[in-house]
Queue: 4 jobs
Job 1
Amino acid sequence: MPVQKRGQARLSDDQHTYNKVLRGLRGVGERANALLTVTFKALRRVGLDPWRIGQMVRAALVLLHREHEWTISASHNAIFGY
């Protein structure tokens, strides 16, 4: 969760940096979600158990990477657990 101001108080430099990093990560996640849902109709209206959606998304992501010949960096491995 982003750090929010209380009243007239200003955020510290650390809090600004934290919010900026959080926005950057959220942007990547939002873009990935949009790309997956636009590309794969099955992911638009999923009525599965949220824990099982991960399997479908992983499979869709593998297909997307193969289709576009993308490589997965070490940082993605650490974040997504590939």
Job 2
Amino acid sequence: MAQQIAKGNLSVNLELKQKDEVVQLADPLNLMAGNLREALKSRSLPDKAMELKQIVSYFDMKDEL
């Protein structure tokens, strides 16, 4: 999911049935994706492009660590 969001795909959602630590991570990730979708709806195209570049850069940097 994080890789898809980093690529700009904000339509992803995690649907998990178990009740463990993974679900505790999935809920905030789903909320983040939804918040990003809503935030991007209200911005101009150049603002959206800049924000997506920042998100992708963040995830690219995490891979290098």
Job 3
Amino acid sequence: MRELIPDLLGYFLNRLDDREDAADAVADTLLVLWRKERAVPAGTEDARRYAFGVARKILLTARRGRRRYTASEVRWRVDALEQTEWKRGGRWGGLS
């Protein structure tokens, strides 16, 4: 599987915005392949297809997590803004 690392990294770099996220996705993919070593097909091309199937699932999970994180971040910022406005006397800063 070591020879797949550059290809996997390229796959993730093309699909994720952040290099660190791509490197993490490669590590996650390799971890899954290591844990499921017995399920990996014996042939080189079959093993490659299997590895990229795992990579695709890792990518989908990473994207789903990023969307959740972004949505949570927006909610936290809105909540913080609302609390700040409330402390200042409401939406119009006490001018109503």
Job 4
Amino acid sequence: MSPLHVIVIGAGTGGMCLAHGLRRAGISVAVYERDRTRADGVHGYRVGIDPTGNQALGECLPRELFDTYTATCARTPAHFNVLTERRRTIASFRLPESDDPVHSERSVSRMTLRQVLLTGMEDVVHFGKAFTHYERGADGTVTAFFADGTSATGDLLVAADGTGSRVRRQYLPHAKIRDTGVIAVSAKVAVTPETRALLPDEAFDGISVTFAPRGQFCIWHVMEFKWDRDGAVKHGVGGNDAELIARWPGLLYDNTRDYINWGFSASARRFPPGVMDLRGEDLKRVVLDMTPNWHPDLRALFRAADPGSCFPIAIRTSEPVAPWKSTNVTLLGDAVHTMTPGRGVGANTALRDAMLLTRRLVAVRDGAASLLDAVAAYEAQMIPYGFARVADSLAQNGTNGDDPLHRPVVGRAVLAANRMFFRVTNGIPALRRKFVADLTAYRAADA
């Protein structure tokens, strides 16, 4: 092992990808995670992994574990659809198909991805460690302190502890996170013959969005996996995938099964007071009360959601921050560049961070760079692309509470223009091809 020792705060997607990359490179690493069990605080909703994310996972994970990741993904969406609240299809775009393990789009349950990333890392991840603060030593080391009275010392401290990062609050107190003025409610619905019939066929086979009056928005993801309700490999799944799933220990901890994931959002001022404190049936009732004119089938999906999976999210975003002087503390993912879900690249950007930081620390291992030079080189790339993605995600219609879409009068005109755009684009083959090509190019731009 390299004498370099890295401390990672947070066992999320980016932090665990980094840990795998470092261990694979022979660099000593330890991850400290607040949640005591593999399931605590983690919701099993969809994450879209684009070519950038696939490349990072392929580069950082051991080959067999990367193969397990691809085997445990849900089927790839075949369509991108735009629906009205009355369940009418305005547009349906066929998405490119690809079997390439890197240059493709993948759908994965967040819970399942976490289980994959924890596989084989029992000696690296320390649970029940709530970070409180860090101190730098005169010898160039840095020590992290935890709420249980323990501490850990290393050469580099990496903040991978998400939007509410305690490391960031100490290290970059001027770096601000703000509410966008939009609240989302998410939930899961088990796939059954009855719930399957509630969505149009093309919506069940893909990803769909609903733009509705008063700035309301809903996204629908259908997740179908290669194992059944009992955790057994489904009929027709064979070869290497079946073998990998059957012997993957993560399935013992992961109760993810086929589901429809919906995410309803609107301006925060449209929600009743105290909505962030609601859960389960009370929260489902709020969504139903806000959507009395939506199609009965869509309302039935709101009603059918598992109450235990229903929770609210205040959509937040980072404010741009100027580059800082590099030290033996750095950040990745939401800890530095929290973004709205508007472009679906938050997890992929965190994975890109992990891949880039791994490469820079390998140079330290090889004696080609000092630690501070490596961190500086990482941050010189990460800060521009990270905050560019923040800006892109915030620019999407509806992700900012100040968007015209949320205004009472102007919003109706914006909604009409939005629907006209998709109708025209859907109806002209050249525009359809360009729309899909632009969407694909954006998500593959960093791979």
